[in-house]
Amino acid sequence: MISLVLEDMTFEQDIRELLMAFYPGEKYIYTDEDSILSLFLSKDSKSYNIKIKSEDNVLEFISPLRETKFDTKNDLKRNIYENLLNLGNADLPWGTLTGIRPTKIVMEMLENNMPLEDIKKHLKDIYLVGDKRIKLCIETAKNEFNILKKVDYKNGYSLYIGIPFCPTRCLYCSFTSYSITQWKKDTDTYIEALCKELIAVSKMYADKKLQTIYMGGGTPTSLEGYQLSKILNVVKNNFDLSNILELTVEAGRPDSITREKLEALKAAGVDRISINPQTMQQKTLDLIGRQHTIKDIYESYRLARDVGFENINMDFIIGLNGETLEDVIDSFTKVKSFDPESITIHSLALKRAARLNTENKREIMDNDLILSMINTATDTCADLGLEPYYLYRQKNMAGNLENIGFSKPGKECLYNILIMEEKQTIIACGAGTSSKIVFGDGRIERIENVKDPKLYIERLDEMIMRKESMHGID
Ligand code: SF4
Description:
The chain is an alpha/beta fold.
């Protein structure tokens, strides 16, 4: 337990998130009670006065009030960070950066033609980012920058189609996902509602260029082949696809993939799919409730190649319960034989709604171990000729690290960059989806659809009206 006693709450979230990075999994209280660490903060006309009390140490220091809130905040975070190191904590790979889009900071600097040396210095001096993360962040942002340069994204938009069903619920899942077994007989009704929403959106956005489509979930391939064809035909018959740059479907779970479904996707023009092993260790797959075998991964991948897919992504998670460094080395040795066009590496995020949390199965790994695992994974990507092209972080992430998308040059997923860098309006249809409207001045508004598919079907008109009310003012 960590206690925060703050006289001024302006930077409460920033302080808490920084402490969360040093002490993953701890609970926070706002009274001076028995805890492994207490942070007291008071304020006078010139500075913040801070006291940090650990079990065997007390540190007191000040942090100045600067002219801008930005400078005051970053000074405060740096001062707390350095004092936490004095208590014996190890450096964090991302320093004081706790936001989810570190590449956004670098992208802005690249767009303003800032020299690379100055960007590196900024990341080091202001945020205390470690050298490896500076290199990764700049390399990723440069790739994003060069990809976006070729796309007229400002005049376009993207479409997300949500299929909230999966064969089983994975232990770490915090997405909108309902059992396909329980929903089986009602999926046609869901698809009918989804198609109505898609048609309404196609009319609303008829004057804009649709550039990317991403069907995710859940696991879209939980549906039958004819159902996938139906949705994609509605898209084909109602949207102008002459400006489409990519159409991705998250096949996701190998236990949901069949030749018939892959052929339906191929026939509908899908040019990028994901087949996600998460790990190549059977004991881990069993533990996390994936209910498929390693053989299924090889088989579904072979089928996808056989059907003609030339752009396949594979997702992996680092920090899964019970995995050792040797397991990760073994998984990534096996990945080499697939030679996929892209690999996305996730550091496990401990989300509140996940069964890992609700069933008390959280296992917090040592930060150094997670770092070695991530290094194994990223080295494999480099060996396969894959380059980082998008990156984001989440709260409560194992090792306080990041998720990184690696790809062969030219095989990147543009949708992933557009959503992460918040460069383009993304209209999302289906239960549990969230549309993001990006305005000309950079302002962003979200429109949420209800999560429960049953409620989504019942309240479809309202979901459409929410989108209509926002349309035309962006
Ligand atoms: S496949 Fe993905 S969406 Fe489905 S339960 Fe597992 S983590 Fe959640």
